[in-house]
C-alpha cells in the first residue's frame, strides 16, 4: 500500500475562474488544512498543447501561483511549483506514451471537445497525448488521491489504466491506482450565459465566467446579467432538474457559502431571481475580493513568486527523482 499523498494541477493558460476556485483551489486548501501531504502544480507543459504567447505564459504562471497563495495555499506546508521546472514529468510522460494506446487518447471527450469543428489532424500531438502527461504528473509522486472537478474524471480513469498497464507489463505493483476526489457543490460550475456548458477560462465570452481578477462591480454585473428563466426558485431541489441556469446559480451559492444545495433551496424557496441574484453577488464579492486583493499584492513582487516556485520545484524534484530513476531501471534503462 501507498502512503496518502495528494497531487493536483491547474493550467496557467489564462486567468483563473470561479470554476477553478470552487472545483479546485478551495478543495486544495481544504486538503492541505486536513494535514495531508499536498503537492500542487502549475502545469505549463499542458498549457502549450495549444499556442501560448511566451510572455503571457510567464505572466499567467506567476498569476496562477499568486491565486493559489491568495486562496490559502501555504507554500511551506504544500509543495507549490511549476511543472516544466521538474524534468521528471516529461521523462515519465514519454515512458507512458509507450505504455498507453493511441485509441485510449482518441476516446477522451476533452480532446473531442477541443477539436470539435476543427481539423483534428491539425491539432498538436501534445493535445492528443495530454492525458499521458497528466498520468505522469500524478504518478511521478505516487499520489493516491487527486482532487479535481467533474470534467477531469475521464482523464483520471485513464491515469489509472496507464498505472495498471505499467504494473502489469513489468510485473510489479510499482504505481498506485489513484482515486479521484470529486465531492460536494461546485465540482461542476457552469457558464453564466449558458448553463449547459462548463465555465471555462477559454470561453470567448468574458460574461460567461467570473475571473478571480474581477472587481466587485464586474462580479455584481455578471451575476445580474446571468441567464435565468422566468420562474421563481423552486421549493425543493427536485425542481431544479430541468433548469440548468437556476441550478448553476444555486450550486454556486452552495459552493461559496459551504451550505448544501438543499439548504440553499430551502433558504430561497419561492424567491424571485431579482431577490436571489443580489444575495449571490454579495456572497461572491465577500468570498472573492479578499483573494483578488491579496493576488494583486503578491503580483507586485514577481521575483518573490519565482523564488517560492523555485523552492517548490526543488522539493518536488527530491520526491520525483528516485521515482523516475527506479522507473527507468524497471524499464531496462
Ligand atoms: P480550465 O478547464 O479552466 O482550463 P484546468 O483544465 O486547468 O481549467 O483545470 C484546473 C482544475 O479546475 C481542474 O481540477 C478542473 O476540474 C477544475 N475546473 C475547471 N473548470 C471547472 C468548472 N467549471 N467547475 C468545476 N471545476 C472546474
Ligand atoms: Na479542464
From TrEMBL:
Q: What does this protein do?
A: Catalyzes the attachment of tryptophan to tRNA(Trp).
Read off the PANTHER family from this record: TRYPTOPHAN--TRNA LIGASE, MITOCHONDRIAL
Keyword field: Aminoacyl-tRNA synthetase, ATP-binding, Cytoplasm, Ligase, Nucleotide-binding, Protein biosynthesis
Subunit note: Homodimer.
EC number(s) per entry: 6.1.1.2
Question: The motif 'KMSKS' region: which residues?
Answer: 198-202
Family membership, please give it.
Belongs to the class-I aminoacyl-tRNA synthetase family.
Could you tell me which SUPFAM superfamilies the record lists for this protein? Nucleotidylyl transferase (SSF52374)
Q: Which NCBIfam families match?
A: trpS
| Location relative to the cell | Cytoplasm
This protein is called: Tryptophan--tRNA ligase
Cited HAMAP family: Trp_tRNA_synth_B
**For this protein, what reaction is catalysed?**
tRNA(Trp) + L-tryptophan + ATP = L-tryptophyl-tRNA(Trp) + AMP + diphosphate + H(+)
Motif 'HIGH' region, chain ranges: 12-20
Binding residues for ATP, per the UniProt record?
A: 11-13, 19-20, 149-151, 189, 198-202
Q: Which residues bind L-tryptophan?
A: 137
For the keyword Transcription regulation, the answer is no
